[in-house]
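Format is chain and fold; as here:
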Amino acid sequence: MPLGNIVETLEGFFGERQGGYHVVLAPLFLGNYGHTLELGNERVVYSFLCPMEVGGDGLPRCGGALFHEFAHSFVNPLTEESKGKYRNLDTLFKPIFDRMSNLNYGDSYTIINEHILRAVELKALHPTELQEGLNQEEARGFVYVRPIFDLLTKYDRVRYRSFS
């Protein structure tokens, strides 16, 4: 999906705009990372991407990580605002903590964000492949993605002004 379409899809889904979007190719970095800078009352979003393969045309391919990394700028601030409201995090995450740590998600809030982001991606980008996508994420260890996705089915941008 072209960058312009990703930004349009993100802002349409979340009902917010960011101050800017930047892609940084990081060929020596393994994995991907999203970062947000607060500049005044705007958020400027960066997506650091590691090429995962080289296409037949000899150009690097970064896969579908761009939407995911940019989406952190919408989801992470909301979970940050709600930190004091979570209960039983140890009970919820103890069974999956080792698996999540192996994926470099070593704290409860990162695990929460990653679950939410995967559910958002399925709703926003893959509505025709839901069962397959949910099954894949659960197999990777994201055991709470289905209940979060079920909650997201109630999210309707016509009814709600924004994701928050």
